[in-house]
Specification:
Distance between the termini of chain B: 22 Å
Structural class of chain A: mainly alpha
Shape of chain A: globular
Strand content of chain A: under 5%
Protein name (chain A): Molybdenum transport system permease
Largest sheet of chain A: none
Order of helices and strands of chain A: HHHHHHHHHHH
Radius of gyration of chain B: 22 Å
Helix content of chain B: 10-25%
Number of helices of chain A: 11
CATH topology of the largest domain in chain B: Rossmann fold
Pfam family, one (chain A): BPD_transp_1
Radius of gyration of chain A: 20 Å
Helix content of chain A: over 70%
Structural class of chain B: alpha+beta
CATH topology of chain A: MetI-like fold
InterPro entries (chain A): MetI-like, MetI-like_sf, ModB_ABC
Largest interface: A-B, 17 and 24 residues
CATH superfamily of the largest domain in chain B: P-loop containing nucleotide triphosphate hydrolases
Oligomer: heterodimer
Subcellular location (chain A): Cell inner membrane; Cell membrane
Number of helices of chain B: 8
GO molecular function (chain A): molybdate ion transmembrane transporter activity
Number of domains of chain B: 2
CATH class of the largest domain in chain B: Alpha Beta
Shape of chain B: globular
CATH class of chain A: Mainly Alpha
Strand content of chain B: 35-45%
CATH architecture of the largest domain in chain B: 3-Layer(aba) Sandwich
CATH architecture of chain A: Orthogonal Bundle
């Protein structure tokens, strides 16, 4: 069965994934909107940056974050100046890392559904006296609802599954940064295969049910990123 | 009377728009041209959907754009109604919610009355609960027109509203548009490449080509301008406004009066005094120097030649004045030479066929 320590890692994992997903929607929505509509020369560059976590080994991303957020890194100096200390091996640090790690899974479905809406409904709304903000909430959000659902589910599940980035920037601190994937690793290291089975089974069941809902109930097309 | 002043200049490299128009503030003004002529771009500039870097636009005395003063009213602040080529209804809203979308966003109560009126006029009352995907193309376009009218706009802009419909659906909507024409007290700018729609709907005609306005003015005057390619086309015609004066039931004929004379038409089923439009194709008009005494053609009218131009394939285009109306005749160049037709000559025109357009 699951021990209290295992339960704590599960709870922490879902907390990290939940908060990260909310933040990704908050920052990812304007970013995806901009990417879907801009003709700027920067579009290609930003697209590539957003997609980087898809192809980078998580340890590489984690390594750079560790360096940047550390006492001599630019982010670390900034957070120290703010009086917040440095972020590695803290819960907020884990959130920042998770957001960057899973962002493409939120931005790409949103960007695709924003692009699919096209110019026409926006123009119709403008001729019907709706301001751009009004249009976004009364036309774009309802039309992009499947995109928002897909983005939330993929962002959440992908964050639940992260391992390499956590190990690099979060370490293995109980109740602070020890998430399920790390706990499974600990169990295996200690040759506690039964415990590892329980946790692994829970994650497998969770991920499968979520994807099942995504592809059957919501009828989302599988996300096949050209790079992956 | 209100007027529309529209001056726009824009340059996309492969396309330039350069127009300076003064249009009447009543009736339907048709912006006519082939694809690529700039007619839709002009309409979009008027709506503010496209921003011409150089431009001035004044509607009803209100300035909507003035590039010199860096003034550009965004589309959602312009009191207009816009009907797109593809109805462009919101797919996530029912017909009812589509109709109320704009209404909720204007700060006046007159809208509800306008909407009820538009719903009745366009015959869409029974569609309210439907989603747009479950409407036919014609129904969708009628809802789109009602949605625009519900805003009680100061001007109605229509971008080829019939172009995406098949012949049957067009015939279904045209009568609605004619009724609109009669009941609407705001100016309508109507973009089309269809001569049929020009004939049925236009009061004022603007002919566009390569981003420039070739001609602009009252319908029959503009239709009959010899310096515009329209007069040379095989389908060249002039449209006259007339009213029903008399029914000759024995002969199954109707006599209609226009300023400067009258015409006999195949019987029209409408009351005396009804206004209607008749269309006379240039190829159905022949010219005689003296009043023909023995002819089977009923419609013979005195006319004055106001213009002569050579056309392709040995044809000549003759422009005539009949009372207040302009008329075009396509005859062979040989006939024109044999009769020695000259500008200013008094002649007789024989009109072989006249088609009646929807009565208003």
């Amino acid at each position: 069965m699951l021990s209290p320590a295992d339960m704590a890692t599960l709870w922490l994992t879902f907390k990290v994934a939940g908060i990260a997903t909310l933040l990704m929607l908050l920052f990812g929505t304007p970013l995806a909107w901009w990417l879907a509509r801009t003709h700027s020369a920067w579009k290609g560059v930003i697209n590539a940056v957003v997609a980087l976590p898809l192809v980078l080994p998580p340890t590489v991303l984690g390594f750079y974050l560790l360096v940047l957020m550390g006492p001599t890194g630019i982010i670390g100096k900034f957070t120290s100046w703010l009086g917040l200390g440095t972020l590695p091996f803290t819960f907020p640090g884990l959130i920042v890392a998770s957001v960057l790690y899973s962002l493409p899974f939120v931005v790409q479905p949103l960007q695709a559904s924003f692009s699919a809406i096209g110019e026409q409904p926006l123009e119709a709304a403008a001729t019907l006296r709706a301001s751009p903000w009004d249009t976004f909430f009364s036309v774009v959000v309802p039309l992009a609802k499947p995109g928002f659902l897909t983005a939330s589910i993929l962002g959440f599940t992908h964050t639940v599954g992260e391992f390499g980035v956590v190990l690099m920037v979060g370490g293995n601190i109980p109740d602070k940064t020890r998430v399920v994937s790390v706990q499974i690793y600990n169990h295996v290291e200690a040759l506690e295969y039964t415990e590892a089975h329980w946790l692994a089974g829970v994650l497998l069941l969770f991920s499968f049910s979520v994807l099942l809902v995504l592809y059957t109930v919501l009828k989302t097309q599988p996300v096949a990123h050209p790079l992956k | 009377m209100t007027t529309i002043l529209a001056r726009f200049q824009l340059d996309y490299g492969d396309f330039t728009l350069d127009v300076d128009l003064k249009l009447p503030g009543t009736g339907i003004t048709v912006l006519f041209g082939h694809s690529g002529s700039g007619k839709t771009t002009l309409l979009r500039c008027i709506a503010g959907l496209q921003h011409a870097p150089q431009g001035k636009l004044e509607i009803n005395g209100t300035v909507w754009q003035d590039s010199e003063r860096k003034l550009f009213l965004p589309t959602h602040k312009r009191p207009l109604g816009y009907v797109f080529q593809e109805a462009n209804l919101f797919p996530h809203l029912t017909v009812q919610d589509n109709l109320h979308y704009g209404l909720k966003r204007i700060k006046q109560n007159s809208g509800t009355v306008k909407l009820e009126h538009a719903v009745e006029l366009l015959g869409i009352g029974h569609l309210m609960e439907r989603m747009p995907e479950r409407l036919s193309g014609g129904e969708r376009q009628r809802v789109a027109i009602a949605r625009a009218l519900a805003l009680n706009p100061e001007i109605l802009l229509m971008d080829e509203p019939l172009a995406s419909l098949d012949f049957k659906r067009k015939q279904e909507i045209l009568p609605f548009l004619s009724r609109l024409h009669q009941q609407l007290d705001i100016p309508v700018l109507y973009v089309t490449h269809s001569q049929q729609e020009v004939a049925q709907l236009a009061d004022t005609l603007v002919i566009l080509e390569d981003g420039r306005a070739l001609a602009s003015g009252p319908l029959s005057e503009t239709q009959s301008r010899l310096d515009v390619p329209l007069a040379q086309e095989r389908e060249a015609a002039t449209v006259w406004q007339a009213t029903i004066a008399e029914h000759e039931t024995d002969y199954h004929l109707t006599r209609v009066a226009f300023t400067g004379g009258s015409l006999s038409l195949p019987a029209v089923d409408a009351a005396i005094g009804t206004a209607l439009r008749v269309q006379i194709y240039a190829r159905d008009v022949s010219i005689a120097l003296e009043a023909p005494t023995a002819t089977s053609i009923l419609n013979v009218l005195p006319a004055t030649i106001t213009g002569i131009a050579d056309s392709r394939d040995g044809q000549s285009v003759i422009r005539l004045q009949v009372g207040d109306q302009a008329l075009l005749a396509h005859i062979t160049r040989k006939s024109a030479l044999m009769l020695d037709l000259q500008i200013g000559m008094a002649v007789y025109v024989q009109i072989k066929g006249i088609s009646t357009l929807t009565h208003q």
